[in-house]
Each structure stands twice: as C-alpha cells, then as structure tokens.
Write a structure and sequence with these properties.
The chain has 585 residues and is of the alpha/beta class. It has 2 domains: 4-11 and 40-374, Rossmann fold; 380-584, SGNH hydrolase (Rossmann fold, 3-Layer(aba) Sandwich), CATH 3.40.50. The chain has 14 helices and 26 strands. The strands form 7 sheets. Strands 4, 5, 7, 8, 10 and 12 form a 6-stranded antiparallel β-sheet that branches. A 5-stranded parallel β-sheet has the order 14-13-15-16-17, sandwiched between helices. Strands 19-18-22-23-24 form a 5-stranded parallel β-sheet, sandwiched between helices. Helix 6 links the parallel strand 15 and strand 16 (289-292). Helix 9 (388-400) packs across helix 14. The model is unreliable at 1-35 (pLDDT under 50).
C-alpha cells in the first residue's frame, strides 16, 4: 500500500500524513460525462513518459528508485511520491482529448496553491512552428478524476505533452480519445537533446505555488529547451543531503541544477555544498553543474532578518564555489538570487513561493545560463512575410531550420494561426504592425517580399483583379517604391536582420490576372534600389528560378511545383542563417 502525504510548503516538514482509503460513491467527481459511445482509453505508459529517471520504482509515478526507501530521510521518501515533473508525450489527430487519473491523497489543494496545480493535469500541444502551447487543464476530484481537457480541436495530427500533478501522487493516468483517432508515442528526442536537465531543490523546484503543473520554471525551461527534465524538488527538504548525491549522479544528465538554499541555513550550506558537488563530480566528471542562490523574499525591503539570512546563505555558497574552483573543479556555474522573482515584489504568493509570474521570471533568469552550459543557443526568431510564393516555401524553411529557429509565418489574426497571404505593398503598409507584433515580436530575422501582387493588373474602378493588360497595376512603380520604402524603414527599426526576397519570374502565357513578364525585372530593380538605401540584404529568388530547370515552374502560372518551392525554401533558409550570423558577429 502506498504511503501518502499531505504535502506542506516552505521550510517546514510535511504537516500530516493521510491514510490511503477507498472512495465513497459521493467522492468521485468527474468534471465532464463521457459521450454516449465512450472514448477509447490509453494508459500513458503507451506514450513516451519523461521525468522518471529510474525504472525500478515502488510506484509507477515515483521520482526516486525503490531502493531509496530507508536511505533518504523519511520526509524525502514521502515527498518523492508526488509526481512533479513527470509527463507524457504522445501524437494524436483527435478532435477531443479526455484524461482520467487516480490520486493518492485526498488533499486536493492548499490554502495558497490551487487544486489545478496540486492535483490537476496540464496539456500542451505543438503548434505549426514546433513550439509548445497550452491546450487545457484537468481539474481534480477525489480519488478519481475525469476531464474533457480539450474539445473542438482541429483534428490535425500533432504532438501533445501531458504533465502530472505537482503536489499529489497518481496511481494511474489514461488518455481518452475518440474511437477513430490515431494514437502513438511521442517521437524520440534528437540525440543532442535526449539527456535531461536534473533540478534538485525545494518546494519552489517542486512547483509551489504554480496554478497548474506546466507553469513551474523547470517545466517552462523543458519546453523552451525542448528537452526532458527531471524534477527532484522536495518541499521543505531540499537540503543537499549527501546520501542523495550519488543517487542523483546515477542519472546521465545534460546538466545538474542544485537549488537548495531556501531550505538551508548558512551552516548547512558550509557543511554540505562542496561535498555534495564533489560527490556528483566523482561519478560525473564532465557534466556541468549549476549552483543557484535562494530567491530574494519579495517583502525583504521591509524585513531586515530576510536580508541578513539571504546574505549569510549566499556568502556560504560563494565560499563553497570558490573552494571548488580552487580545487580545479571545472564546468561549474553560479546563478545569483536577487533577480529570480524580479525586483517589484509582485511575483510571490507568500513572499517565498512564486506565482505563475514568478515562475516565468525564474525561467527567464535561468535560461541564458542553462543554455550556455548546455551549448544550446537560443533559437532564432524568424518572421516570414510574403505572398503565395512564400506560403509555398514556408514548410521547407521550417524543416531546414528545425532546432535552430522558430519560424513564424504571417497569420490572419491574434487567435487565428492560419497562414496569411501578405499580398502587395498596399496591404503590407496597412498590416505590418500587426504582423510584427505576432507571437510577442522580438524578431532576430525578418525575411519579406512584396511585388507579385503589386504588378498584377486590376480594374481601375473596382480594384478587382483584371485580365486586361491595359488596366493599371495594383501599385504602379512610383507607389510601389514609396510603399516599399515605408515598409523597409519600419522593418529596420525593429533591430532585426532584414532580408528582401526578389520577386520570382512571371512566365509567358495567358496569366489570370494579367501580369507582364518584364514587370518582374522592373519591380525588382526598384526594390534593389530601396533596399540599398536602407541597408537591407537581398535574397535573389528570381535567379533561383530563372537559372533552374523548367521542372521548378508551371506553364502559364506564377506558382511553382513542389520541387520549385523546395528550391526556394533552401535558398531562403540559407539566407536567414547567413543574415543571422552576420548580425550576431
């Protein structure tokens, strides 16, 4: 029978133990009833489960091996039964996803941490750029919960990531899908991102007081880095216990993060920090180690005792760090604590435990240091703007830059991620600010094109597409120049590396709407002059098609074959990497 704990926070030992008991008829509280035909239930053991570093477990969602019982302190053993950091990746095309899970403690929530974080489950899905986005959260009941966590999904096959509860244990977890939906385990991690980052620490590491399991900083970093994470946070009991060091060193990790100061006195830090690191280094001579100071209490400006305690603990950790470096211990780094929750005092529930804002700030503070230790640079943020030609090569650019760049295509709106045809410069001038603000902005590279719509013929009265060569162009050359000048100036003001892609050739033949082949040359000449004035790089996609085989194009059609779009995508991806490299130098 599993021992169960009602988990406490802060630096205190757990408040009480709850006896495991069976449910009464009134206690099972599913959030939603199943559809009449019922879903097909799949154990998450059929998915790719991460966050479990050992295979020989006393219970399937434990965080330490069965042999740790009697070796680690009793409260640590009890706390490791919470499933913090355990998650499952799977692929499905389901339009509805249900989850049911059985909890091991009836304490679903705490006074300062909601039930969704303590005992709920949390679902993320990959968007078209490969980034994880939140989908839904399952609200718990005792002891069994069932939640329709997402409905009305688009039915596209995509990867999902399901997090387990942070402060409760689970004995079983299942995913329910419609009978016609496909289900497969999550794909293997790339070899350079297969090893986990191991976090060892306190209640903060475990996840107090996140509103839901995906919001603890360790999980946030796992998604940003796109690699597995092992969460060994033990509420009130992250104390650099020396018996844990060789056990943690059994994990073939990419990085060990040691974040225990909130639970330790300065004397304990002096006694344990250096020996703990030595024990890790003895078994893992090459794995980087990050030592983290305690976060600053958000009410420290009003409490001198907090300031003094922080100072003593941090001085002790710095002394340990210096001693280790003097001994020749390499690949060890240090993260200061003052900025972990920000400086405005607004990011904690109780001065100590972060809100979701606090966890986001912690992830921001950790990320650059962790990336440097892993040798995993921040991926480029790339924005693609252009007409249907660029729509054709967007997928190829994403594929070629996978792992190195987040490639965002101009979308139709803040909550409509369908790709948008940016059309001509008139639309570009009107919509540019909206496109630049997509996904939070902050672009490293912007690759853009306008021309093919500008040179097409339109009815002078209605402005609609025209097949009459005597009708005016959508934007005559002078207007095209003025619009393009405005767009280039605004793009350069973002600070991104900016690339203009030349307009691809207009073939001979009866084109609808009408376009003159010579106009592609004319408009590209204008664009080159404007780009030279603004210092914008030029990617010559015109030449890729003009000098390539006929199989790249289609007869009497401005669009391209799959082969043609792939060639354009290869050229665009190469130009993006070149521009990014020049900008970073």
């Amino acid at each position: 029978m599993l021992p169960v704990i009602a988990l406490g926070l802060s630096t205190l030992l757990p408040a009480s133990l709850s006896a495991l008991r069976g449910p009464t008829p009134q206690e099972s509280a599913p959030q939603d009833s199943a559809p009449p035909e019922g879903p097909v239930w799949r154990s998450i053991e059929e998915a790719t489960v991460e966050g479990r570093a050992w295979s020989e477990l006393a219970s399937p969602f434990d965080r330490l091996p069965a042999r740790a019982e009697g070796v680690v302190r009793p409260p640590v053993w009890m706390l490791q039964r919470a499933s913090a950091g355990v998650c499952a990746r799977f692929v499905t095309n389901a339009k509805e996803i249900r989850v049911r899970w059985t909890l091991t403690s009836e304490q679903l929530a705490m006074p300062h941490m909601p039930a969704t974080g303590v005992s709920g489950v949390d679902l993320y899905g990959r968007d078209e750029t490969g980034q994880w986005r939140w989908v839904g959260t399952g609200r718990p009941g005792w002891p069994r919960s069932e939640s329709r966590i997402a409905a009305g999904l688009d039915g596209k096959a995509r990867e999902y990531l399901l997090y387990m509860p942070l402060y409760n244990g689970v004995s079983s977890v299942e995913v329910g899908l419609p009978a016609d939906a496909r289900f497969a385990e999550g794909p293997a991690r790339p070899a350079d991102r297969a090893k986990p980052v191991v976090f060892y620490g306190t209640s903060i590491t475990q996840g107090a007081c996140a509103s839901r399991p995906g919001m603890v900083h360790a999980a946030i970093l796992g998604r940003r880095l796109d690699r597995p994470v092992v969460n060994l946070g033990f509420s009130g009991n992250g104390r650099m216990d020396l018996e844990l060091a060789p056990m943690i060193a059994e994990i073939d990790a990419a990085l060990y993060v040691i974040d225990c100061l909130p639970n330790m006195s300065a004397e304990q830090v002096t006694e344990r920090a250096a020996p703990f690191v030595r024990a890790l280094r003895a078994q893992r001579p090459d794995t980087p180690i990050l030592l983290v100071e305690d976060r600053t209490f958000t009410n420290a400006p009003f409490k001198r005792s907090h300031v003094e305690a922080h100072a003593r603990r941090r001085a002790a950790l710095r002394d340990a760090m210096e001693a280790l470096r003097t001994e020749g211990v390499e690949r060890i780094a240090y993260l200061t604590g003052d900025g972990l929750l920000g400086l405005d005092g607004e990011a904690a529930v109780d001065a100590s435990h972060p809100t979701d804002l606090g966890f986001e700030r912690q992830a921001d503070a950790f990320e650059p240091v962790v990336r440097e230790l892993l040798g995993q640079p921040r991926p480029l943020r790339v924005l693609l703007l252009g007409d249907s030609i660029s729509l054709g090569y967007t997928a190829d650019v994403r594929r070629r830059l996978a792992g190195r760049a987040i490639v965002v295509r101009a979308n139709r709106g803040p909550h409509d991620r369908r790709h948008e045809n940016c059309a001509g410069t008139t639309k570009g001038v009107a919509q540019l600010d909206r496109w630049l603000a997509q996904d939070g902005g902050r672009w490293d590279v912007i690759h853009f094109n306008f021309g093919l719509h500008d040179l097409k013929r339109v009815d002078a009265t209605t402005g609609k597409n025209s097949n009459d060569p005597s009708d005016p162009r959508q934007a005559e050359p002078d207007r095209y120049r003025a619009n393009l000048d405005d767009i280039a100036r605004r793009l350069k003001a973002t600070g991104a590396a900016v690339i203009f892609a030349t307009t691809t050739p207009v073939p001979e033949g009866d084109l609808r709407p009408h376009r003159d082949p010579a106009d592609a040359l004319l408009y590209n000449a204008i664009a080159r002059e404007v780009m030279a004035e603004h210092g914008v790089l030029v990617n010559d996609l015109f030449e890729v098609i003009a000098s390539g085989p006929a199989s790249l194009g289609k007869p009497a059609n401005v669009h391209f074959t799959r082969e043609g779009s792939a060639a354009l995508g290869a050229q665009a991806a190469a130009s993006i990497l070149e521009a990014a490299g020049s900008a970073r130098r």
